Amino acid sequence: MTRRAQRISVLHGGFSSERPVSLVSGKAAAKALKQSGADVTLIDMTRDLSALMTVLKASKPDVVFNALHGRYGEDGCVQGLLDMLGIPYTNSGRLASALAMDKPMAKKLFASAGIPVAREKVVTRAEAEQADALPPPYVVKPTNEGSSVGIKFVHAGDNRPPLDDIGVPPDALVMVEEYIPGREVTVAVMGDRPLAVTEIFTDRAFYDYEAKYADGGSRHVLPADIEPGPYARAMELSVAAHRALGCRGVTRSDFRYDGKDFYLLELNTQPGLTPTSLVPEQAAHVGLDFVGLVSWMVENAQCDA
Known about the structure:
It is built from 10 helices and 12 strands. The protein is α+β, with helices and mostly antiparallel strands. It has 3 domains: about 5-90, Rossmann fold (3-Layer(aba) Sandwich); about 100-115 and about 180-295, D-amino Acid Aminotransferase, Chain A, domain 1 (2-Layer Sandwich), CATH 3.30.470; about 120-180, ATP-grasp fold, A domain (Dna Ligase, domain 1). The model has no long low-confidence stretch (mean pLDDT about 90).
């Protein structure tokens, strides 16, 4: 490690819908950091902030490794707390994290940077249940969830699905987004470096939570079997998206490729670090093992104090 960061506290778990994934990511990161020689404290974050402060005070970390996923962990909340404490942490800062988690706002920024995005409309959940906000086919998704949590597809001829299990009350906003047919691809970025393009295949209806994290839920083709010109285009767009939100550390951008261009679906500022996750695969593809990946993340930790 290029900086003295021998005491590392790994935040994982949390209390979002993505808690199970975060527990796996955190344990994997902690194990790898211990292999690198660091003194690691693994912290299961709860809503008890006084308990978190007590553990952080006792562990005196040089760096916090943020392995939290979902609300409160990757939406700028914990980043703001660590900024106040003056403790460097991995990946993006509070503003970039908040922007990436707010899907409608992120799409506005992507579009302003010249990155193709699908057409969308923001309505209440009740409005989405009562009428088609866009011509089908379209996708209904929460405005601030990750890992495909709560996503619903509506195809031409379908009855509009009830959205009571989408995770928001009837008066809360949801995003109705044009469905882009084509291939599912993703690109990880480390700093300003795109790693590779992966194409994702699944036998499920789409690349949902189970496809992402269950054994055998999806198949990854790395590098994607895409012509050199479009391949380079996907890499360029992933860096542009990373920069458009002011991200740092590692991000992963997910696209649909219709054979003509790539449409950015979302950017993830806290990519998973599980055995089925895409970022470790891409890092290994360019010659960086898992210990090297998490060590790089620690070396590039910052805060906005």
